[in-house]
Amino acid sequence: MAYDKFNILTSSAVPLPIENVDTDQIIPARFLKATERKGFGDNLFRDWRYNSDGTPKEQFVLNNPIYSGKILVGGKNFGSGSSREHAAWAVYDYGFRCVVSSFFADIFRGNCLNIGVLPVQVSPEFLNKIFKAIEADPKTELEVNLPEQKITILATGESESFDINDYKKQNMLNGFDDIDYLLNIQKDIEKYAESTPL
Amino acid sequence: MSKTLFDKVWDSHVVKHIENGPDVLFIDRHLVHEVTSPVAFLGLKNRGIKVLYPERTFATADHNTPTRNQHLPVKDPLSANQLKALEENANAHNIPYWGLGHKKNGIVHVIGPENGITVPGATIVCGDSHTSTHGAFGAIAFGIGTSEVEMVLSTQCIMQPKPKSLRINVNGELSEAVTPKDVALFIISKLSTSGATGYFAEYAGDVFKNMSMEGRMTVCNLSIEMGARGGMIAPDETTFEYIKGREYTPKGKDWDAAMEYWSTLYSDDDAEFDKEVTFDASEIEPMITFGTNPGMGIGISKDIPLAETIDGSPATYKKSLEYMDYSEGEAMVGKPIDFVFLGSCTNGRIEDFRAFASIIKGRKKADNVTAWLVPGSHKVEEAIKEEGILDILTDAGFELREPGCSACLAMNDDKIPAGKYAVSTSNRNFEGRQGPGARTLLASPLVAAAAAVTGKVTDPRELMHEEVLA
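The joint structure predicted for all components is written out below.
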């Protein structure tokens, strides 16, 4: 199933300078009961965002109107914990297309790539620069350039390159997914399977 | 060229290698549950394709299921709908489905090994991060997202770059009351929850060699909590003894052929690992967590570390202690608790119930404690009854529930109330993991039992040395 193409994204960003943000915070388990992939953005960071009576917690960043944008910037070890792709869906459904951190948990990073959200890993120093830039001006814009694999703080011109493997980069640029690829090599897979006992 | 155990299994499953990209990895066994599969099945429907190898696919209901009155219709309409979707999808694609009430029903990572679906040298995936459990048998097993569930259903493959290798050695002998759970919590406390991210672990050394299969499953289960995709242990006589004769394991000549392959599954003497760490078993004492990630664990006799002594952001550390309503420097022993949860894919097997019962026997549940004892499967439940453990539990004022994931992730009604403390044998103490506002202390079944009878955090060694007035 093709997803959105990703090329160059220029946007303000939402800062979440907390380490070890786990997938239970991104979307608590009690909101995983759907059988279709929609509406998860409403419950993104549910328990940090809302009180138990459903009223918004005003101090939480998503409830602060001065912050907005398609880029979420999180602290180190973002997305640890459960394999629930619902966490990536919630990030996407809320409107984010890119998550920046100095370190990502493996499964969350893979899930993001599989649905067209770009995980951008930067150095701890550059992450701090981003947080400082947003603190100085909440509307400050970041440019995430996938073809050049470069992220830039536009106000200061400071930039850093980021890694992504060529295969996934092409998928992101073109909006391809892995199943299209795998279905195309099904003959090879069937041949392999014949040689492998159950 | 010498290879690690992981290399041997991974390399033999690569259908195709993509230059500067992932490997196309063939998956021998795919376990499916109700929460992470419906959107994947919907994807197949939209593409107009069927499950490629239903005979390599197994489905069970566990995450969402009630642990009481399973014979009655599920009350929560959303949960009921998800269970119905799994049953319909399994039927439409000819996948064996062990739903509620089925005698093989239970937590996916408990029933896989129990029924012999889990074998050495296999690649096993499931849309659940604790799939790492199956690595105990020398399999490569790891959790995947729903897009990948769809890949495996439709093509029996996933696309993953090969992870780096990490060997964790624990040598020497474990001290009294130190269980596999304590070994795992100790390792995670040393490496942190991201210390093994990007790696696939192999556990080696005396401690794992001498460990039962149940114990090895507990250790491998928790690999993901240090960030590793999975962890594995080379199969040996203990492994073969455990799997022989189970329903889905090879029989007769097939067994002999399999044994020939399985006996090659070890890391060569001169195999190189990208990273290697070694611990001394005697350093480990019964563990307990005090914070909001599984890396925040300490020996039960120790005090909560001071913020200045920890790695990482002091602000995040303080936020975590604030959530727990604990302060730096406090002792854990003596802290009051409200709930005890024995169960989950980490500690919901028969050995865990035996350990719990060994402390409970002749004592009574503390009045201030609500205890939820949830077997990992119907087979575990049967064993609890057959071995007389149920009588011990009942005499002490405990009730046994029906199998499922239960309060580990609180998707069903088993939610720890806001602000309450639960000593849990499960795997995650994240904020709200066991219910909104719930506070979790991760520990072994022995520590959980000690808390259940005293109503507070208690060193199980104290009770083990105390005469019980039966």
